[in-house]
Design a protein that fits this description.
- With about 750 residues, the protein is α/β, with parallel strands linked by helices.
- Helices cover about 45% and strands about 15% of the residues.
- A hairpin with a 5-residue loop joins strand 23 and strand 24.
- Helix 15 runs parallel beside helix 18 and helix 21 packs antiparallel against helix 22.
- It is globular and about 80 Å long.
- Bound molecules: NADPH dihydro-nicotinamide-adenine-dinucleotide phosphate (NDP), 2-oxoglutaric acid (AKG) and magnesium ion.
């Protein structure tokens, strides 16, 4: 293989996207290979990341390289081209399940120490800590985010609108957030006048200094925030909201992002569970402590830990838990058939996807009886929760959005170099005792920002570097120019952090030619209102937002506009010059894996991946001056358009065309486009036979892909698939496989 052969790095991730890759990668390799492009896979699944963390516990054959670290290094090189599929951002219950599966497969990795006591346990806990939550994205996303629905996708949604629940003026659904004592309330922020090393320390009431983070190095012009959430205020808020929901007879639901805010939100989640079941906790606290029950990991943790108890004792606890429901509101359910409630696990309800689903369903969630009902959506932190109340108000007044006429809301999101909450993971602390929580200049001893905190409060530092802000502003201007759409910066001058950002945005906009562009800055709530007024008139508006709103809005609008965020194009122009091409915003869809395993039907839509690959190839073509890559990219774009026109997306129902069938049609149209193009005769000739074989055998291939459906399949694991088994499940058409294998590479 020549050293300078252009290369795409294709990530292997988890769950549904990984299964889809088993079918799609051979297609990609066939097409790219014929054009002289190398496609290298890189396993960043949660299981691979676990194994990479414990080489000392594994045999030589079992060891795997630290691919994430390697990919992180590559993001710094201008030639890097990565296709990044959604991966599991693991909660503790997911991590525990993955560990158990790997141990069962003979890997001598250690148990997860929830409450480490020895040095060895602390070391293990630290290694696992790096795998938990959003561990991949902050490393790879070394650029800002550009997410949008391409025109063809938007037109498809207009022609084939998804279902939308009705909204009524009488809907009782609403958002509840804290009014004081949350991160928004007490936030302090500053732009650094010079490069500084900052220490995070707590000076307790009795004068002791506890260093929580010895040093964070920041540069001149970087923004740094200190914020805390008061435990006392949080508990009072939960109590009041639960009582309000009970009295008014509306269902209670909790929406957090325990994966991305992997330190703070599990704590916030755990408090909700403890308040809801406070009588049972009061009665059994000593036993729960002894058992090491930690409901920050969900009620599932409690149920697992009491498994070891004698049955009478266990049943008494369960009875006491059930009794709490008598004095509490009805809880929203994740899986009513199996009694799985919103409190079961912190990663079952993830706010970016769960709130749009509720809004799409006319403001409803499922109750214990399996019926959709109005719900109180509790999001303690008010900083971003307010946007959801604004859109709910809008729907109550104007009714549900109409996908056939609504405008589109692309996003330009600030996230590079661990911007904002992405960088807070190792700078978030649960405060051990009352005192002053200070940011101190490690060289001069100067106190830069200070907060008065109490035991149990959550205190954190968020930072955003200056260079990513410049890059974000540039990306927003470029998108405004290329799309002709107005850009709104969703920034709230009352929030100290965003006020610092506003100053920079105003300054850096001056570096660009903005003549004729419509660029405005508005607070989040006003931005939402302004955008929605345009949306219902069919007008498009780019949202330029910070990292959390990037995450929230890039599920919210696509889910309303397209039915799923998986149909979106998601590009990360890496600041060092390379590119990362992601697939929509949708997650890794555990429910889809269940359907595949039980019925051999994969409803996962790989459209986002097709769109990402086309841009990746285009970029490769431009940067390497590689005509083949450009032709492949154009042909793939056209093929994706045809796929949408012909409506060959996966069906949700077993027995109909699924992900594999959709990929077959993509390969057919792609080969046909290549065979038909006249720019490169050799490439046309290479693909003509494939186009012909795939077309001639359409009935056979589709039959082979559909007739296997309907019965369970074995993929050899959940977190670590058996590659061969997964290949055979995901590639059941011999005719298709032979046709692909016949292409000369
Ligand atoms: N970029 C990344 O790496 C991301 C990773 N995640 C991770 O994914 C996991 C699950 O996240 P969660 O938020 O619960 O979301 P899910 O993956 O469960 O997605 C929510 C729903 O959206 C629909 N959906 C999502 N993607 C597709 C697709 N490609 N084709 C068709 N439908 C799709 C499915 O609806 P239906 O079931 O009705 O078919 C799915 O159940 C978590 O571990 C999370 O951290 C989440 C977001 C981004
Ligand atoms: O980083 C994560 O954990 C989730 C990312 C996500 O949901 C997104 O980027 O849309
Ligand atoms: Mg998201």
């Amino acid at each position: 293989m020549s050293a300078d052969k252009p290369k795409i790095i294709y990530t292997l991730t988890d769950e549904a996207p990984l299964l889809a890759t088993h079918a799609f990668l051979p297609i990609v390799r066939t097409f790219a290979g014929a054009a002289g492009i190398e496609v290298e896979s890189s396993d960043i699944s949660v299981s691979a990341r676990i194994l990479a963390a414990f080489p000392d516990r594994l045999t030589e054959e079992q060891r795997v390289p630290d691919t994430l670290a390697e990919l992180g290094r590559l993001t710094q090189l201008p030639e890097t081209n990565i296709i990044k599929l959604p991966n599991i951002s693991a909660s503790v219950p997911q991590l525990l399940a993955a560990i158990k599966e790997l141990q069962g497969k003979g890997y001598a990795i250690p148990d997860f120490p929830d409450d480490p006591k020895t040095d060895e346990e602390r070391d293990i806990r630290e290694r696992y800590g790096k795998i938990l939550g959003s561990a991949v994205n902050p490393v790879l996303r070394e650029g800002n985010s550009d997410r949008r629905a391409p025109r063809a996708v938007k037109e498809y949604a207009r022609k084939h609108p998804h279902s939308m629940g009705e909204w009524s003026m009488a809907s009782r659904s609403h958002v509840a957030h804290m009014q004081h004592g949350d991160f928004y309330h007490g936030e302090k922020s500053m732009t650094l006048d010079k490069a500084r090393k900052i220490r995070m320390e707590l000076v307790t009431e009795n004068g002791e200094t506890i260093v929580l983070k010895p040093e964070v190095s920041l540069g001149e012009g970087d923004i740094v925030d200190s914020m805390f959430m008061s435990k006392k205020a949080l508990l009072e808020f939960y109590e009041a909201q639960m009582e309000d929901a009970r009295k008014t007879g509306v269902m209670f639901s909790l929406h957090v992002k325990a994966t991305m805010m992997k330190v703070s939100h599990p704590i916030v989640f755990g408090h909700a569970v403890k308040v809801f079941y406070k009588d049972a906790f009061a009665k059994h606290q000593a036993l729960f402590d002894e058992l090491g029950v930690n409901v920050n990991n969900g009620l599932v943790d409690l149920y697992d830990k009491i498994e070891t108890l004698p049955s009478t004792q266990r049943e008494e606890i369960i009875k006491d838990l059930h009794e709490c429901h008598e004095h509490r509101p009805e809880l929203a359910m994740v899986d009513s058939a199996n009694g799985i409630s919103n409190f079961h696990s912190p990663s079952d309800v993830i706010v970016d996807a769960s709130m749009p689903a509720m809004i799409r369903m006319g403001g409803k969630m499922y109750g214990a009886d399996g019926r959709p009902k109005d719900a109180k959506a509790v999001m303690p932190e008010s900083t971003f929760a307010r946007i959801y109340q604004e859109i709910i108000n809008f729907c109550k007044t104007n009714g549900a959005f109409d996908p056939t006429t609504m405008g589109t809301v692309p996003n330009v999101g600030l996230m590079a170099q661990k911007a904002e909450e992405y960088g807070s993971h190792d700078k978030t602390f649960e405060i051990p005792e009352e005192g002053e929580a200070n940011f101190v200049d490690a060289d001069t001893g100067e106190v830069l920002l200070t907060q008065h905190v109490e035991a149990g409060d959550i205190w954190r530092m968020c930072t955003v570097k200056d260079a990513p802000i410049r890059d974000w502003v540039k990306l927003a201007v470029t998108r405004a120019r290329n799309s002709g759409m107005p850009v709104l910066f969703w920034l709230d001058p009352y929030r100290p952090h965003e006020n610092e950002l506003i100053k920079k945005v105003e300054l850096y906009l001056q570096d660009h030619d903005t003549e004729g562009l419509d660029i405005q800055i508005m607070s989040q709530v006003r931005s939402m209102r302004y955008t929605l007024e345009r949306v219902i008139r069919g007008l498009d508006t780019i949202a330029a937002t910070g990292n959390i709103l990037r995450d929230y809005l890039t599920d919210l609008f696509p889910i309303l506009e397209l039915g799923t965020s998986a149909k979106m194009l998601s590009v990360v122009p890496l600041m060092a010059g390379g590119g990362m091409y992601e697939t929509g915003a949708g997650g890794s869809a555990p429910k889809h894996v269940k359907q595949l395993v039980e019925e051999n039907h994969l409803r996962w839509d790989s459209l986002g991946e097709f769109l990402a690959l086309a841009v990746s190839l285009e970029d490769l073509g431009i940067k390497n001056d590689n005509e083949h890559a450009k032709i492949l990219a154009d042909a793939l774009d056209a093929a994706t358009g045809k796929l949408l026109d012909e409506n060959k997306n996966p069906s949700r129902k077993t027995g109909e065309l699924d992900n594999r069938g959709s990929q077959y049609y993509l390969a057919l149209y792609w080969a046909q486009e290549l065979a038909a193009q006249t720019e490169d005769k050799e490439l046309a000739e290479r693909f003509a036979p494939l186009a012909q074989t795939l077309a001639e055998n359409e009935d056979t291939i589709v039959r082979e892909l559909i007739e296997v459906q309907g019965s369970p399949v074995d993929i050899g694991g959940y977190y670590q698939l058996d590659r061969e088994k997964a290949d055979s499940v995901m590639r059941p058409s011999k005719t298709l496989n032979d046709a692909l294998a016949s292409v000369q590479v």
